[in-house]
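Q: Given only this backbone (270 positions), what sequence would you predict?
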């Protein structure tokens, strides 16, 4: 879905606790490996996995529909309740997308008076590249290439470059840089967009995300991420106290990155 591209790109898995953990493992770098004939076996210390964790976050919203509104005939829809439910669920999904990639937030354990919050995606990516020397700088092709090279050298194979709307326009301008030609067909449609960016280090799908944190661009492998579900979204009809029905839509979800060293992000964007 274009409204929630990050959430739509990753798969889901079930978790069973408010705070859940997983193990992040890695393999050592390549080295010289040549043994003489008859050599004794020499042992190598095996690196231990790193434990990672995140919190689940309760996301919900209630709506009320008067009995009369549901009884009368409305234009373009059969029942007001069904209409309100669909809109509320879509809005909640936008809130979830924002919790994933629209904030730079560490996990908050929560208290009786403060909501528990999950760590955002930016807190689970260790490979970062600043956009420039200033507090904020524009996205450049050089920075995209530099980050993609770093990811490749780290053993990562990101396939998606997720950017905010303004940065997608900058990427479209990559095609008009000096000494480059673009193949335009002889028709009446002008196309000025880059959907696939091929670099020496692989192919990236350029994904625009209106909910993405404006100072960041993410270079990710969606298969390394999981939407973690403690409670799927459900609708509950609350106790009736008048001539209306109150519905409460709520779920409890979180986010998991299998390896923090996988992929990367550009920070400090204007």
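A: Predicted residues:
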């Amino acid at each position: 879905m274009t409204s929630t591209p990050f959430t739509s790109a990753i798969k889901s898995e079930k978790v069973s606790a408010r705070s859940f953990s997983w193990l992040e493992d890695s393999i050592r770098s390549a080295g010289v490996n040549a043994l003489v004939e008859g050599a004794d076996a020499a042992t190598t210390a095996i690196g231990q996995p790193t434990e990672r964790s995140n919190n689940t976050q309760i996301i919900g919203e209630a709506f009320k529909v008067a009995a009369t509104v549901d009884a009368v005939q409305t234009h373009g829809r059969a029942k007001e309740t069904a209409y309100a439910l669909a809109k509320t669920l879509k809005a909640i999904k936008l809130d979830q997308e924002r919790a994933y990639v629209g904030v730079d937030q560490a996990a908050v354990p929560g208290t009786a008076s403060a909501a528990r919050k999950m760590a955002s995606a930016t807190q689970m990516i260790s490979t970062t590249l600043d956009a420039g020397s200033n507090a904020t700088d524009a996205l450049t092709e050089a920075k995209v290439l530099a980050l993609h090279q770093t990811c490749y050298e780290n053993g990562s194979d990101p396939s998606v470059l997720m950017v905010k709307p303004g940065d997608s326009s900058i990427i479209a301008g990559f095609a008009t840089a000096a000494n480059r030609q673009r193949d335009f067909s002889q028709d009446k449609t002008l196309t000025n967009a880059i959907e696939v960016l091929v670099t020496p280090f692989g192919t990236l799908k350029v994904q625009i995300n209106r909910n993405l944190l404006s100072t960041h661009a993410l270079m990710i492998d969606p298969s390394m991420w999981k939407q973690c579900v403690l409670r799927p979204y459900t609708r509950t009809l609350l106790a009736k106290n008048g001539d209306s029905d109150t519905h409460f839509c709520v779920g409890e979800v979180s986010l998991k990155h299998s390896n923090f060293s996988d992929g990367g992000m550009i920070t400090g964007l204007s």
